[in-house]
Design goal:
This protein is an alpha/beta fold. 33% of the residues lie in helices and 24% in strands. The chain is built from 10 helices and 13 strands. The two termini are 17 Å apart. The strands form 2 sheets. Strands 5-4-1-8-9-10-11-12-13 form a 9-stranded mixed sheet, with helices on both faces. Strands 3-2-6-7 form a 4-stranded mixed sheet. Helix 1 packs across helix 8. The protein has helices at residues 46-56, 73-84, 131-135, 148-160, 178-182, 190-197, 202-210, 251-264, 269-284, 296-303; strands spanning 9-13, 17-23, 38-44, 60-67, 88-94, 102-107, 113-118, 140-144, 165-168, 185-189, 216-220, 226-229, 235-238.
């Protein structure tokens, strides 16, 4: 899969986060202390990690969503990082008096991460800019699942215009969540699809949810690859690329971003899933959350079997 002509424009909707990441030998027991071997301050958040991946893979990205007060340090830090990645921040909404989310993340040698995050509840009352401005020249919309209240009408309008809407899920969804029916594609992780459907099997969970939405449904399962329902309602699997993982933080977000870019470039679902699997695998081989998203040439080399 290669870029042809003008790179597609993708709108990412979410809530940026300032991440403090600590590498530890093991997550400390309750009430205890532990020394970290490394500290990094990076920008994160599901949609922002995906946006970084899209930009590095050759897409044009604009970002919409709430951030804290213009005077606070976290929002300034994140905006500088977004600018350095070439992400258009015209549609970011600054909210006076509120705090941009901050997370503390512990990363073990296996790459597994444990985190806690603070999100100011006032951020969810933000109104996004006009839909015509947001969707202008847009080939796809990628949305964090938690942001339905901010953008459900925009997603519905995008679908009316024939623009695919991809929802990246990182927590269980309500079966009444409007994003389930507003989306063209919904990408879960294994735990989230089972919890959402109330079924302890990925494939059966996808089949149950398929009765509630016309969207294409998929669930990522780390090293076990991705399971998904094709247009005929049959389960298919896309294998993962075997790598030595050192940091899984942001891997799902990179997968969502790469998949969305693949669709926007005209790839079939199967091809877009394989492209996304390669991008996510490479991200897991290096530290830095979404900031460790790979470049296009690296993904293409892996897909050709040269890495």
């Amino acid at each position: 899969m290669a870029i042809s002509g003008t790179a597609p424009h993708i709108l990412c909707i979410g809530v940026p986060v300032r991440d403090l990441t600590f590498r530890v030998e093991a997550v400390p027991a309750r009430g205890s202390k532990a020394n970290a071997t490394h500290l990094a301050e990076i920008c994160g958040g599901n949609a922002l990690n995906a946006a970084i991946a899209i930009a590095r893979l050759g897409g044009r990205v604009s970002f919409a969503g709430p951030m804290g007060d213009a005077r606070e340090a976290s929002s300034g830090f994140i905006l500088e990082q977004m600018a350095s990645e070439g992400i258009d921040t015209t549609h970011v909404v600054r909210v006076p008096g509120l705090t941009t989310p901050v997370s503390a993340i512990l990363i073990e040698p296996s790459g597994e991460r444990t985190l806690t995050i603070y999100r100011d509840p006032g951020l969810w009352s933000v109104k996004l800019p006009d839909g015509d401005a947001l969707l202008a020249d847009c080939r796809a919309v990628l949305v964090e699942s938690r942001c339905g209240a901010l953008c459900i009408d925009l997603c519905a309008e995008a679908r009316r215009r024939g623009i695919p809407v991809i929802v990246g899920v990182d927590r269980a969804m309500s079966l009444q969540d409007g994003l389930l029916t507003a989306a063209s594609h919904v990408l879960f992780a294994s735990d989230q699809v089972q919890e959402t459907a109330g079924v302890a099997d990925d494939g059966e969970a996808l089949k149950r949810l398929a009765g509630l939405t016309p969207a294409l449904l998929a669930a990522t399962r780390g090293p076990r690859g991705t399971i998904w329902l094709n247009e005929a309602g049959k389960l298919e699997e896309t294998p993962a690329f075997p790598v030595q993982a050192v940091d899984t933080l942001g891997a799902g977000d990179v997968f969502h971003g790469a998949f969305t870019l693949g669709l926007a470039e005209g790839a079939e679902v199967r091809e877009a899933l394989r492209f996304a699997a390669a991008a996510a695998a490479l991200k897991c081989t290096r530290h830095g959350g979404g900031m460790a998203a790979p470049q296009r040439v690296e993904v293409e080399e892996l897909l050709r079997g040269r890495l």
